[in-house]
Amino acid sequence: MKTIVKSRLAELLQTMAQDFRVLVPVKSETVSQFVPWQEGLTVNLEGNTVLPPKDIFFPQTEKMYKFKVKGSSVDIEEFAEDVQKQVIFGIRSCDMQSIDCLDKVFLTKGYEDTFYKTKRDKTLLVALACTKPQDTCFCESLGLNPLEASGADIQVYDLGDALGFVAKTPEGEELLAKYASLFTEVNAVPQKVEGFNLKAEVAGIPEKLAKMFDHPIWDEVSQKCLGCGACAYLCPTCHCFDISGNVKADQGYKFRCWDCCMFSEYTRMAGGHNPRPSKKERVRNRFMHKLYYFQERYGQLLCTGCGRCIAKCPVGMDITAIIEKIKEAEV
Amino acid sequence: MSIEAVKADKAASQENWEPKILVFACNWCTYAGADLAGLSRLQYPPNVRILRVPCSGRVNPQFVIRAFQKGIDGVLVAGCHPGDCHYATGNYFTRRRYLVMQRLLEFMGMDPARFQARWISGSEGPKFQQVVTQLTQDIKALGPNRKLRDME
Amino acid sequence: MNQHTVKMRELARELLSSGQVSLVLGWEKGNLWYKSPPVFISRVEDVEKLIFDEFCHNNLAKYLMDLVHHSGKIAVFVKGCDSRAINRLLQDNQIKREKLYIIGVPCPGLKDPDDAVGKKQGAEVKNSAKCATCSYPNPVVYDALLWETVPVNTTKAPVEELIAKLDSMTPDERYAYWTEQFSRCIRCFACRNVCPACNCRECCFDQAEPDWLGKANNLSENQFMQMTRAMHVAGRCIECGECERVCPMNIPLMAINKKVARDIAELFGECAAGLDLEKRPPLGHFDLNDPEKFM
Questions:
Q1: Do A10 and A134 reside in the same domain of the chain?
Q2: How confident is the model at residue C157 (pLDDT cuts 50, 70, 90)?
Q3: Residue B150 lies in a domain
């Protein structure tokens, strides 16, 4: 296995940064997230980031095109986006799975989202194996392997004092070959993953939910929800967006920005009717989408077990507990 | 230097920079006062834009923040003298609200001088002239506002 | 099980089985030892879920607004801060006193769940920042008080130091500080939704027409949102600190709220929100002799 001691990781990233935009997980006093590598940054190899990496491909606010009215016609111009080749280093199995979910939404079923695709196509993913799950992690229950992320170009293993790199795709191999001089070839066995605090049994849940749209369980589950968007905005897979505009006199631009099905105006129609009038319908939609609708459309769950929503929900809503409730519910 | 600061600097360096000042004038007193100033041919700087509101109490704190966002350099809220409110008590609420608001703006790093409130009655044309002239001079001295700006 | 929990369950059981109330709002234990989320209990056998420990952060008064049409009486457990929220909601005519059975739980000060992350149950955990400045740990309104009142702590909290630090900065430094804070905001509205002072039927930020708040996440809109919120809760904030606790981006919102509360006290005299039902919120009334500093 190609290895590098942890103390020399900065050197590797610095070298890579000459050829790529390198994004690394960094923890500051206030928040942890993926940021572009700069000399002097400390990469956080412990635990996952608070903010998921989804905004790298799908920014919270993204300009789409600008327009200018000229007489009876409109000039439309796209924003020229200069997307560099980028490497995301240290992405966890759960977030790798979330990128797979986003790929399905934005790139399959006959429609390719160019805003997403331009950034996604130029990205190499260097996944980092988890050995110590956080209190709120439960990816294993969803069939993910915390040590081995599917879809990664390179898988990195924590070997204690060093990191071991294994290429998983030709692009990954190319990348490792490019910086081969920085690595030492060592026979190493990756560490094992420690036990998970949270578990969820999802077998049969989508099938069961198919019959639970009108089930009284939603009254109970939604009761304590406050209807904020912390869960959706921190979720690595939530991908709803709204399109809005900024118009000044005869010109302006359109942009898209994250939206959240927990907000009252999310489903409010022109004229004021709201088909999801209360938090019961909204909470139901959230969990139905995660655990049933997405499975039905794309064949996988829209939850990756990262546990961010459990960690940050103001009222301690816990998706594993909700899955348990669904499992126990009488249909 | 941020893009914001660069743009503002550029604006400041332009010799012909003139501050934009928004006056929320109550319909019953200050608006009439401004009208009187005009009728009396009193000269005052053309930097002020007057926005008529039913009462100084109608001025929502959001109006003030929005004004700064959208390019205003100074805001004046003006209404009837205490005791003279057409709606009896509107201006007393204004007084409390904007004492708090001015301190909040200061805490957020704004210069509190950019946000003022005055009582100007319908017969005080000269006072209107004097207040907006003074305010314009003060804001000119402060230079263009760079804070809270919407640069999109 | 601690004595507090035993007392809670006893009273809740009595109230439910005698039919005095049809719903009890309390706290329970979930999958994480450092979280005590809200629980809604309507059956006597569920009373065993109730607990009280150092992580009962949620202000249950907020849920009373969801339950205005609930038939029957509701029992609600309130800490000192929560009880002030009850008074505020009563003042705003959001809830009816006769529909409530308020159970006061004097609060010893809570622990910081963020500090407990990754630790084993029972480990040493920091005190919650929001409880450090608490001047009202004992409920100010209740039908029953579950245990003895606790002494008020008077230590200087980090938020006071932050305000002092900001006050000593130049305006530009202060602006730079808040710029950095607000640029992190992801606009999840957790601060608003957890806040008992935010009890509008429809929040201006949710309105599409007029479009008060643009949907784009940028510094200017974030400043607009947070300053508007500061003005809207001015004089109505009960300083429970929930907004700051729930902010996933750790924006020091209580520094703003505390500062505004202090300004109001300086300008119009002591008028801490939610202490006295008869005393109207400071921006909801006036005095003929109010200061006229900049008029």
A1: yes
A2: confident
A3: no
Residue A124, classed as helix, strand or coil, is strand
pLDDT > 80? residue C1: no
Closest B-chain CA to C222:
B148
Identity of the residue in A47, A257, A315 whose CB atom sits nearest the CB atom of C38:
A315
C 31-90 residues with CB < 8 A to B: none
A212 lies in the same domain as A178: no
Shortest CA gap A285–chain C (Å): 18
**Does a structural domain hold residue A20?**
yes
Shared domain check, A90 and A11: yes
Q: For residues A189-211, b (16+ Cβ closer than 10 Å) or e, as one string?
A: ebbebeebbbebebeebbebbee
Instruction: Tell me how far the alpha carbon of residue A75 is from its chain's centroid.
Output: 35
Number of domains in chain B: 1
> Domain span at residue B120?
17-142
Q: Could you give the 3-state DSSP secondary structure of residue C40?
A: strand
Residues of C with CB under 8 A from a CB of A: 30-32, 35-40, 58, 62-63, 66, 117-118, 184, 186-190, 192-194, 202, 206, 208, 214-218, 242, 245-246, 248-251
**With left for phi above 0 and alpha for psi between -120 and 50, is residue A154 left, alpha or beta?**
beta
Residues 58-97 of chain B with CB under 8 A from chain C are 61-62, 65-66, 69, 82, 89, 92-93, 95-97
pLDDT at B6 over 60: no
B6 inside domain? no
Domain span holding position A160: 2-47+82-185
Check if the beta carbon of residue A244 is closer than 8 Å to that of residue A255: yes
A77-87 pLDDT, tens digit per residue, is 998 878 899 99
Kindly report the pTM of this predicted structure: 0.92
As a whole number, the mean pLDDT across chain A is: 94
Which residues on neighbouring strands pair with residue A65, listed in sequence order?
A78, A254
Pair C26, C37: CB distance under 8 Å:
no
Looking at the domain assignment, is residue A193 inside a domain? no
Cα distance between residue C12 and residue C101, in whole Å: 10
Is residue B116 situated within a structural domain? yes
Work out the minimum CA distance from A224 to partner chain C, whole angstroms: 7
* pLDDT per residue as tens digits for the range A13-38: 999 999 999 999 999 988 999 999 99
Distances (CA, A) of A209 to A138, A261, A290, C8, C281: 20, 18, 11, 36, 48
Tell me, what's the pLDDT at A286?
Answer: 97
Contacts of C104 (CB under 8 A, 6+ apart): C78, C83, C138, C139, C141, C142, C144, C145, C146
A139, A265: one domain: no
Is ipTM beyond 0.90? yes
- Report the gap between the CA of C195 and the closest CA in chain A (Å): 10
Is A52 inside any structural domain?
no
Regarding whether A216 and A321 lie in a shared domain, the answer is yes
CATH of residue B51's domain is 3.40.50.960
Check whether residue A242 and residue A101 sit in a common domain.
no
